[in-house]
Write a structure and sequence with these properties.
With 336 residues, this protein is of the alpha/beta class. It is built from eleven helices and twelve strands. α1 crosses α2, α5 crosses α11 and α9 packs across α10. The protein starts with 5 loop residues before the first helix and ends in an 11-residue tail after the last strand.
Length: 336
């Protein structure tokens, strides 16, 4: 069967190819009757426009690139899915590439997307992003990992963590441990500041004697498990009665560490995570977490790229509020 072309549609509809093109592009000059007739014939013939030809004519590819550090991270997977849905709502598709959190690979991915003539790029930058040069003239929106000197869109990491720690404080916890992210990570440092904000404001400053109850770790499960072991391997009256983890994966790893040490959750230890990934609702007990508004961040990034929303000003990012989703891993502390 030969390929159906725009001329075939025009011939059967009794209109010009230009009229068919205007119907495909939803041009307001086309009458309702013509639009319906052309649309019915397109449907009957199964005609599919050639995207490359449309791109050459309109100089718009209807493609958005998205570069993330790691596709195996559930947070980034959800961000991609949300961006894809937001793009589809505007008639766009996305091309996903991963940088493996490495600046040289990131620069290569951006170069590849530029050669594909994408209309813009959503970028979750690597931690050494500042070492690369961005192409001029191509719209790029930085999301999640806000970088000094660049505008961006993200959840309010600092305020979100403060909300989660305040939830633990209201339950009566004072020895609250914290599993931070990597020290070179901008979001990790924002989350650490949120923890410190809440602890300093609690009862005039919840100062704790003994070793600091902070452990630095990568955002993954195994690192959270190791950090949990570090925080919990101390005398009962010195170990934390609650732990806030900077990612849900860390929190789930910490839950495993508590289980291995025979520390029941939440009877003897409360745990709160951060991100609100779907996996958080599948643990036993169900994890209490601070949910990032991933869909809002993705939708805003797409809208900014397509000029549907005003771009954030330099060093004045668009920040979305987080919320605490109460699960089953928090309760008032037991007496020592």
């Amino acid at each position: 069967m030969s390929k159906v072309g725009i001329r075939d549609v025009a011939k059967l509809a009794g209109v010009s190819t230009g009229t068919v093109s205007r119907v495909l592009n939803d041009h307001p000059s086309v009458t309702k009757d013509v639009r319906a007739r052309v649309g019915e014939i397109i449907k009957d013939l199964g005609y599919l426009p050639d995207p490359s030809a449309r791109s050459m004519r309109s100089k718009v590819s209807r493609l958005i690139g998205i570069v993330i550090p790691d596709l195996t991270n559930p947070f980034f997977s959800e961000l991609v899915q949300s961006a894809e849905q937001a793009a589809a709502n505007h008639g766009y598709n996305i091309i996903v590439m991963t940088s493996l959190d490495h600046a040289a690979k990131e620069a290569d991915r951006i170069k590849q997307l530029t050669s594909r003539k994408v209309d813009g790029i959503i970028l979750v930058p690597s931690n050494d992003f500042h070492t690369i040069k961005l192409p001029k003239g191509l719209p790029i929106v930085v999301v999640d990992r806000l970088m000094p000197g660049y505008s961006g869109i993200a959840a309010d990491h600092r305020s979100g963590v403060r909300l989660g720690v305040e939830h633990l404080l209201k339950l009566g916890h004072r020895r609250i441990g914290f599993i931070s992210g990597p020290g070179h990570s901008v979001p990790a440092n924002d989350r650490l500041r949120g923890y410190l904000d809440a602890m300093e404001q609690a009862d005039g400053g919840a100062k704790m004697a003994g070793p600091p109850l902070i452990a630095e770790a990568a955002f993954d499960y195994e690192s959270g498990r190791s950090a949990g072991n570090y925080l919990l391997a101390r005398a009962r009256n010195e170990r934390p009665t609650a732990i806030f983890a900077s990612s849900d994966q860390q929190a789930i790893g910490c839950m495993r560490a508590a289980h291995d040490l025979g520390i029941p959750i939440p009877a003897a230890l409360s745990i709160v995570g951060f991100d609100g990934i779907p996996l958080a609702s599948m643990t036993t007990p169900r994890l209490t977490t601070v949910k990032q508004p991933i869909q809002d961040v993705a939708a805003a990034a797409v809208a900014v790229l397509l000029n549907k929303q005003t771009a954030p000003e330099l060093d004045n990012p668009i920040l979305f509020a987080c919320e605490v989703l109460e699960g089953e891993t928090t309760a008032p502390p037991q007496p020592d």
